[in-house]
Design a protein that fits this description.
Shape: globular
CATH class: Alpha Beta
CATH superfamily: Hypothetical protein apc22750. Chain B
Largest sheet: 4 strands, mixed
CATH architecture: 2-Layer Sandwich
Strand content: 25-35%
Order of helices and strands: HHEEHEE
Number of strands: 4
Structural class: alpha+beta
Number of domains: 1
Number of helices: 3
Amino acid sequence: MRKYLALFVVGLFGCATTPPPAQISPDQRRAVGSVRLLDGPAPAGFRMAGQVEGIACGQEPKSVPEMAMAREELKFKAAKLQATMVTAIFCQEEHWYPQQGCYRVIRCMGDAGRLP
């Protein structure tokens, strides 16, 4: 029973862990807005704060998750680490991700950090 309740909750609220905009404080919103995404390698002087991951979920068999949503989640998680940039971004599509109740997933990973 708990398993089905968990799947229902995930299905109802989606896979991404980024909270809805109404739950983000003005300071958090400004921090997320200042994070830059850099697809290439880190520039000289980059100080890594940690790795971040963003996920976009397609909950219907033929739905296509949006990469932009996964990349936006990278920014949100980087801001939580007080980073200003995410570099070395890698995104891939995965199929059937039952832990999250998704048929298709776009998963992006990157290195969050700051420049001095």
